[in-house]
Task: structure prediction
Amino acid sequence: LIQLSIPLNYLGMVYREVKQALANIQRMYALLDEAQEVSDAPGAPALRVNGAELRFAQVDFHYDPARPILRDVDFCIPAGKTLAVVGTTGAGKSTLARLLYRFYDVSGGAIRIDGQDIREVTQDSLRAAIGIVPQDTVLFNDSIYYNIAYGRPEASREEVIAAAKSAHIHDFILSLPQGYDSAVGERGLKLSGGEKQRVAIARTLLKNPALLVFDEATSALDTRTEKIIQAELEEIARDRTTLVIAHRLSTIVDADEILVLEQGRVAERGTHASLLAAGGRYAALWAMQQSETPAAA
Ligand code: ATP
Result:
């Protein structure tokens, strides 16, 4: 029995590995399909940015035709203004950012920047115009310098350091044994959530995009770090067209407009004050989050 079970175990292992390899190949093809789906239109011009007014015009979207994710989502962020989107988990908030960056094309309607349909301009020019501070920043297995400079690889050392200073991470970097040359990422120094967000902010500052997207982290940072980061984000959002995907309402009270997304539809819209006065879903969410906030915060 022992003799038999060893090769069987071994076979099981081989089977699992082959299965994993096949899954990886499938994923690779899925990615290739995606890449094809969003290729540049022949002869597409570069996006011409003039203030970066962002319009989602009656946008419908599904990853899988059997399951609509966004339905008739319609909004306009005038140049330099801030719009925040809130809603329950899975409502489709992060999908808005994926569509804007053109990881996927809309299934219906259109997304326009300064009047140009994003499907009709080059992806390079589109992505150059957009800075995303994601929920979870991916760090490359490289120096912290490289990780910041990634925002604009041709930037000078002075510009990289200036961006790190503005993102309040310069002093932390200098405290590391190898300063800007310290290795970070999986195989290097593991940064905290707040430090990673600062790297993302520094990258974005260096990129200096006309359009900003903040996909707020769901995992809470400590209150003090969060307040500081919030102030930094407000600073870089000033005078830029900004889309905030919010998980905590306290961070968006000053937004020019707030959309409440529910199962892919816009359920309510207005300013913080008008939504509170309306006494609907937003007001209920607000009351709930207020009661969750510890008294000390
Ligand atoms: P959260 O607040 O939890 O981050 P969200 O509102 O940002 O949620 P999305 O990430 O936009 O939600 O996802 C909306 C829906 O789309 C979810 O039900 C999710 O399961 C589904 N979804 C997301 N990405 C994909 C994908 N690549 N393929 C299929 N379905 C997806």
